[in-house]
Design goal:
12 helices, binds 1-deoxynojirimycin, 5-stranded antiparallel sheet, TIM Barrel, Immunoglobulin-like, alpha/beta
Length: 548
Amino acid sequence: MPAASRPRTPAWLRTAAFYEVYPQSFQDSDGDGIGDLPGLIGRLDYIRSLGCDALWLNPCFVSPFGDAGYDVADFYHVAPRYGTDADLERLFTEAHARGMKVCLDLVAGHTSTEHPWFQASARAGKNEFTDRYIWTDSVWRSAPAGLSQINGYGERDGNYVTNFFHFQPALNYGFARPDPAQPWQLPVDHPACRANREEMKRIMRHWLDRGADGFRVDMASSLVKGDTDFAATMALWAEMRAMYDTEYPEAVLIAEWSDPARAILGGFHIDFLIHFNHPGYSTLFRAEPHRDLFQFFRDMGGSYFDRAGRGDIRVFLDHYLEHLRATEGRGFISLPTGNHDIMRLARGRDAADLAVCFAFLLTLPGVPYLYAGDEIGQRYVDGLVSKEGGYNRTGSRTPMQWDASPNAGFSTAPAEALYLPIDPAPDRPTVAAQEADPASLLSLVRRLLALRREVPALGNTGPFVPLHAEPKAYPFVYWRGEDKDGAIVAVNPADREVRCAFTLPAAGLTTTPLLPTGATLQVAGTRADLVMPPVSWAIYRGRQTGSR
Ligand code: NOJ
């Protein structure tokens, strides 16, 4: 691609660290038991103090909340339970005053069945919205295999295609290869499909003009149907990115795709590599389930980050390196600490295990993402009845644990009125307790994020080179930065002492631990010998004398 037409990347992404806020569980300010925007504004200083300077806010728009707000009924207005449109604008202003960015969640692929567009589309008579959702041409005709549908809704003679739950009808972005024998399958450039694209642009412009700094796009790979190679979907996002590059060059597009090579080359600035742990869930996003990422963190007993030490770093690494190489210089890969859809990282792990995970996650290239509460090791709460379509995700969505006051400082509502119960464990972690403890996970997270900024080699950009990554072996050791001026990171999640030898990228490096460690590193020429205690991590600066 000629340099002139290369997509631009906002400079702030080179040092950004994100914090994901699930608004209903973060901070309640009006005592109704549900988190809200004024509550979040009151906690911005805390988020900034972690070293995070960007927010990803889960959907906060008008919704019946069948899927926690991922079923939008009005993209242009804030759900009253979170506050007003003015509160959202105040969030932008207050965040910007602190040097922070705010990215919203764009549910581009579907709406709620309660959205007036869908209600119009479900009518028998032809109208502006008839083709804006995907309907077969008769209730006796099914959508092609691989698409889910609902039969017999309302007066319209046809079945509508859904993207997720039954009340989330798919907006029509067309079929990549419409079947000529099925004229209800529209091409991507049909006026109704184009109208949906334009509407999504209008929604983004609406909030970007009011101060938003970008969007995380829900199920970004799902828009064009039958798009087996994702070429049409990538072209769609390239069009959106062109709008960003021209009109909002400082704003960012973040994909929920989990296929960075496609998402970033398709136009996104950031994509996640999501280590889902719900068997089957990942198949919603990709043709093949990514067992490799599932295995990496959350397949307890067999994952690499597990005390049993039976994992295989190569399973993750080969996948990661493939995507890293394909996207280098074009966008950022993020491995989030968690999110509202996956098991809490703390599940089955103690503070020492979590420290190893964080030492790894916060020294990778790409943009770090913390899921609210992960920085204190907030736990997955077992046994909850599904809330707002959460099902087994519900346990990762309980209120933020701020302090030892009633409801952990989340809300002044009676406990039974809370959005979800607070973790009942008597030793549940809180922000207040961990702020007072220099050895806490919270303190470590702050130090690691500070280190990312102090030592540019450990930051969002710059080389990542495995130094010791043998199949089924521990530890995992990698280099960040330039050959003569960088950092060594080593992680040993296994509950046994491990040792290894590896080759440094240059001779004559002086190595100094950047944070206290129990590991021992000996260097002779380019040869390094490392001994690591059970469940440990280490980060060393490595510089040739004379380099700055
Ligand atoms: C992904 C979101 O993260 C999840 O919470 C939601 O249920 C589905 N997409 C459907 O929108």
